[in-house]
């Protein structure tokens, strides 16, 4: 491929409501980075950016939200990251477009993962929107917003100006969508055809938008990837007053106004110090959406808002999720069936093993029985409920499961985040999809299936495309799951009995599996 690049006074210059922005042109795309979409004081609602003179240089990624901790790089082959300068002035977005014209292309707005506490718009290498934009003739947008104690800290008891501080990060996302609505046509996009999509915490943010009245009309469709996480990302309920007072005591200050100006690093340290005791007592600790008049709460607890009932949703997860990050203490490829059963019985106990093994074999006949120890139910079980309740409202809810093992460390079950490169059409940006030399085209075929489904969904609200078999929408009690793997197919309710059994034994399974995995030997 002959690469092209251009940046000058006339190329990739777009007039927005706030003024002109200039990006650059690369390999047939116009790319804009770090565009401010709003501004905000700490704990307060975002406000529109004032109009500016001159041209904003949109050739560099903007700041990302400060994190609570500075974690060391690790696991980069599984989830490759970008680490980037942090600052509270982080309300910015990035745009990839084939042309700043009037074509009205589908728009996809990416909401990053990391729960509601961490992550950024550029954190994962595969978040890059260039290939999706170029190959799909779409406009791709990714956004940064406030997180953790900056984005989700309820201070409503301290006055009306903080009424929705517990959802400031969600308000930022809504502000970004308002910017998209007002400006994306100038970037070649259709403001009436916006798909919000995200993975993990980003997928959960899609649901948060569904439950936030202020977001109505700002998007047309949603894609939730590994984002129905049950208690792992539960709403932060109750009053934040006790938390705020504990943090202020730790900092030696006496008012929220002082907390607004406190050094962020000291603020974060104080929060992390007082949080454990409040968590243990079941008190509010922030870091997640706060149900109130602005956000109606988890739909599995409160129901989906009728105003968004007809918004098409694509919802799914991967086989192993967090379980697949644990190192394998055994050789999956060279275990007899008896040995596999024995290891499962040792790990889970006789009663649970006897209940789960036949259900697992029925649901996953293509898998080794030992893979039961890698099966996710933290995401999949609530996801089944979510899809069932959503499909009662419409005929435009689709379900998928990414089930293809990845050729790393001798072959590993799919882990949390491993499907992102496939949906973004970015498998060539990461290493692990290319480890299987016996079937080198498989990764590209799976990429075509995942990307093609998301592209069709973004264009029409239906994921139907030539790369996959016929995939019907879900109906109440009939979940049609597109199982994406070497033999991609649609299966109905295929794992429901297995997941129900896992949930019944969840506490004991988690207790046993949270021990030393190295003890699970034959």
Please describe what this structure looks like:
The chain has 522 residues and is α/β, with parallel strands linked by helices. The chain folds into 3 domains: 5-231, Alpha/Beta hydrolase fold, catalytic domain (Rossmann fold), CATH 3.40.50; 241-280, no CATH class; 316-519, Alpha/Beta hydrolase fold, catalytic domain (Rossmann fold). It is 29% helix and 15% strand. The protein contains 15 helices and 15 strands. Strands 1-4-5-7-9-8-10-11-12-13-14-15 form a 12-stranded mixed β-sheet, with helices on both faces. Helix 5 crosses helix 7.
In short:
This protein is of the alpha/beta class and 522 residues long.
First-last Cα distance? 51 Å
**CATH fourth-tier homologous superfamily of the largest domain:** Alpha/Beta hydrolase fold, catalytic domain
Structural class: alpha/beta
Residue stretches low in confidence (pLDDT < 50, at least 5 long) are 516-522
From the 3D coordinates, which CATH architecture of the largest domain would you assign?
A: 3-Layer(aba) Sandwich
Strands of the largest sheet, in order across it? 1-4-5-7-9-8-10-11-12-13-14-15
Number of domains: 3
Compute the CA-based radius of gyration: 23 Å
Instruction: Tally the beta strands.
Output: 15
SSE series: EEEEEEEEHEHHEHEHHHHEHHHEHHEEHH
> Quick one: overall form?
globular
Oligomer: single chain
